[in-house]
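Subject: DNA-binding transcriptional regulator, LysR family

B.,
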Amino acid sequence: MSVAFSTSEETTSYAVPELLEPISTLDDIDIRHIRYFLAVVRCGSVSAAAAELNVSQPSLSQQIIRLEQRVGFCLFERKPRGVEVTSAGLAFLKGVEHIPHAVRAAIVAASPHRNTITIGICSGISYPTISDVSEMIRKSIISEGSWCDMPRFQLKSISSSSQGASLRLGDIDIGIVRIPLTDPSLTMVPFNVEELGVLMAAGHPLAEFNALSWADLRGQRLLWGNSSDDQEYSRALLMAFRHRGWDPMLENVDIHRPELTIHALNHALRDTVAVYPRSSFQSSPDVQWRPLAESPVTETLAFAAVTGTRYATLIDHLADNI
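Prediction pasted inline below.
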């Protein structure tokens, strides 16, 4: 069988025998191989997984090859866009997907006062909101009283749709997600609800009004990021717009950071707007934000953690102080 991984410039192929000699020991497999395998499964391609793991694509490809040689069977098959997990790979996935989280849980159990909490942050969150989140968690830790030392916080940018897997794998401890987000394995605690308004370039014709109606938006294009980042939220948002009489043409661009949104609005067609809470763009002379005067749509952020973990207990405790 021939398996190939695609890069942006070329396709690198390697041959894997139909039947490899199975390993007689687990000594040649370490946690890194498991993490790499799970990342490729989660991302659907080696190049995307390499970017997430912050390793080179050739290096990741070689590690996957070595893992396949050590387990004795092919884990992935090449497809036109990315890779697909083989039936053997799916069986392997079922057996190993809990390992990173189990290892991290064991470390926490052995050292309950670990000094780092990794927080996943979905795209488009303003710095003041991130600062508020950190402060709320600090207060909850103090109030809960089970942590001897105040941990430091490590932030990781990751989409709402990907946070469930990252939480279960132990890549992050607490997530900040947009809801709705359906995941029965997670405990979620809403903490911030904001009305969405219309963001536009400073010279946009609608900027002359102090507030807008949904009728004003008819015919306006909507600057739209990658809907796979927050799939359920994106679907709910578009449904809410259509229910209010606005069915916009979507302009798909990378707007996962505020500065990218500002740049895109100022280089887009004149009839292009974006939709954000006001807190995301409080002080930029290049854009204008206007509220919607009737039937506004809201954005809800929530803390998320795997149910049954000490982090779920922490955010449950945090809910009492919101």
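The first strand starts at residue 2 and ends at 6.

T.
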